[in-house]
Fold:
Amino acid sequence: MEKKIPYKIYLEENEMPDKWYNVRADMKKKPAKILNPGTLQPVTKEELSGIFCEELAAQELDDTTPYFEIPEDIRNFYKMYRPSPLVRAYCLEEKLQTPAHIYYKFEGNNTSGSHKLNSAIAQAYYAKKQGLKGVTTETGAGQWGTALSMACSYFDLDCQVYMVKVSYEQKPFRREVMRTYGASVTPSPSMNTEVGKKINAEFPGTTGSLGCAISEAVEAATTQEGYRYVLGSVLSQVLLHQSVIGLETKSALDKYGIKADTIIGCAGGGSNLGGLISPFAGEMLRGEADYEIIAVEPASCPSLTRGVYAYDFCDTGKVCPLAKMYTLGSGFIPSANHAGGLRYHGMSSVVSELYDQGLITARTVEQTNVFEAARDFARIEGILPAPESSHAIRVAIDEALKCKETGEAKNIVFGLTGTGYFDMVAYQKFNDGEMSDYIPTDEDLQKSIANLPKVEL
Ligand SMILES: *Cc1c(COP(=O)(O)O)cnc(C)c1O
Structure:
């Protein structure tokens, strides 16, 4: 029986998950194995452990263990900002005059402002446990770097962030948050690494790219004793940690006897979406329940909807393992007017395989529509959403409006991954009426897709 549902459904501390859920264990057809970028053969745990922490390498390769215990230190850290609320969007429902019931899982209640902290703290924990001195990473917009710097300061680890130079200069406040947490932030390309020096010599005055920052971070990790490289999305280990979002959502819904009908998440590299849907997809895979799952991606970076399902490099620097995924090619760069995030060229191999099996559907939205939804949501529900999260808001609103036509009282659940305080340049463009949409042509996409690596297994 349905109880009166509060505006915010919180779990008690003792109702928080004590295990992460690995959806790969319930997949009959598993995501394809990841490959060594040098040999193009399935990567071994030993090879992977040269770049990543040992236990994270083990999690990355494990597609049979359904549950991983969340270590107590991580559970204690989670308790400082979790469980995150599942909010019933009564005000939005009222405004839309929809019979649908809308819920959102809000992950923006921590200083980093997004769900990325859920995996950052886990990765820092395993680095510490292995006795490492520190970790290196890259950051573009800065959410991942911020989350990682918080996690590293908690475990007293050195954190070296290579930040794409243009963001370093344009987002000084993000940079200062990271430095406040003790991270060293280096604009990339830098003169700290061989690859940075080479790029600076070849392209004087370049403002950098994510691929270049990754190459620098990996070089820094592999050339300093006691360091490893960490990554904030795409990898299966990251989805595993992010399953805490879905597990809490499921418990909160169960607590009030609510059965979700439609579950919506924005999809960049696929980590928040994968984490949110994991327990629900698990039920589908085991034949216990059925849900409509919608991945939302920008029309300007449509990896699921217009990409190809093939092996590709996970990074533009071609140093990380290759994964089979829906991809636009690692050389794909969204058009210069794209402001809404989710600019990754590929999609998590787990999400890609679930999509290929038909468990997930995908949809694209254009950025002006996304920012309209963001503005409306901010005004109605009070939270200033991240542009990335607003892709999910857009589709949740669209689905709720459909229910208005059909009269269906569907339960719509979406992931609100973070807040948008550091995205005011994009909001300014929108508010000034200067935001436009660009949908790449097939020819645009073909250029980068044509350069996919040739893999024969
Ligand atoms: C990084 C980020 C995303 C996209 O990453 P995924 O791995 O696809 O989840 C979405 N929302 C916010 C707020 C982010 O910081």
